[in-house]
Amino acid sequence: xxxxxxxxxxxxxxxxxxxxxxxxxxxxxxxxxxxxxxxxxxxxxxxxxxxxxxxxxxxxxxxxxxxxxxxxxxxxxxxxxxxxx
Length: 85
Fold this sequence. Notes:
single chain, mainly alpha, ubiquitin-ubiquitin ligase activity, elongated, transferase
C-alpha cells in the first residue's frame, strides 16, 4: 500500500529540502571563511608589511563596514537569529 501524497506532505518535504540545502550552504561558507582566515594568518607570518599596506587596510575596512551596515543599520538586509537550546 502506497502512502497518500497530500499538499501538506509535499510542502513539508520541500521545506525540509530547502532546510538541508541552506545547511549545506552554511557549512560551505563557514569552511571557506575558516580557510580564508588561515591563509591570511599564514601570509601575516611571512609578510607582515603586506597586511599593513594602506590600500589593503582600506579595502578590508570598507568590506567590514559594508557587512556591518547590513547587519545593524536601519535598512537591515541580513538577519541574524539567536536560538538558545
